[in-house]
Amino acid sequence: MINKLLAYQEIDGKKREIEVTLAKSDCRRKMVEAKKYLETVEEKLAKLEQRAGELTAVFENAVALQKKLALEAQDFSHAIDSLEDETGANFLVKKVDELSAKIKAVDDEIVKVENEIKAVLQDYAKIRTLTAKAKTQFSENKEEYAKLKESVKGDLESIDSELEKMGKEIDAELLELYNKKRKEMYPVLYAVRDGYCGYERCNMELPMNTIGELNSGKVVECGNCGKLLFVKK
Ligand SMILES: [Zn+2]
């Protein structure tokens, strides 16, 4: 039984090779990269729109305040023109100074907010450009990847039909376990080496009862790395 599963694994290795070639292909990498970017775009744009809304409100308030302060300044200059006593003049000069400071602060605030709005708009434009690029990158590479898949379709089909034939001669439960493992690892099967897991990177010393099971001809899962182990007869 184990020899049949080993032969199955060998043919399965050809399938695995094709799968790896597809997974590592440049076009797939570029396709995935573009897709990931596009998935984050909406969130980024929503954040920018929210920020733009906040800044617009701040800007409008500052402009309204600027107008109000300008009117107050006008009133003061009329009052100073019609002034007669010195105490009143000193009071008004103090008030004018305070008002000038307020006007200066509002002017600065407006410049600051305008710059922030400009930066948001630049970010927005940049994202739109990158989005357009990512869309092109995605569709071009998707097409390329489809062609690549199509080019190996025949090979995969013949491997699959060979595996199906071979699988019929293998214990169903064992084959199911192999195929489940195969989704996460390859190779799946390893021969035990002197009581140790045969997978070099694991190399765990196997417990006595496991060795007993293996010696009775069973295929046993390594408790450490999960590979399927057997004893070479
Ligand atoms: Zn192991």
What does this structure look like?
- It is a single chain.
- The chain has 233 residues and is mainly alpha-helical.
- The protein has a domain of 153 residues: Helix Hairpins, CATH 1.10.287.
- It is 77% helix and 3% strand.
- The protein has 5 helices and 3 strands.
- It has a 3-stranded mixed beta sheet.
- Helix 2 runs antiparallel to helix 3.
- It starts with a helix and ends with a strand.
- The structure holds zinc ion.
- The site of zinc ion has 8 residues, from loops.
- Zinc ion binds next to loops.
Oligomer: single chain
How do the strands of the widest beta sheet line up side by side?
1-3-2
Q: Give the names of the bound compounds.
A: zinc ion
Number of strands: 3
Total helical elements: 5
Query: Mean pLDDT across all residues, rounded?
Result: 94
Low-confidence stretches: none
Distance between the termini: 12 Å
Overall shape: it is: elongated
What is the level-2 CATH architecture name of one domain? Orthogonal Bundle
State the CATH class of one domain: Mainly Alpha
Strand content: under 5%
The arrangement of helices and strands along the chain is HHHHEHEE
Question: Percent helix among the residues?
Answer: over 70%
Structural class: mainly alpha
Sheet with the most strands? 3 strands, mixed
Per the CATH scheme, the topology name of one domain is Helix Hairpins
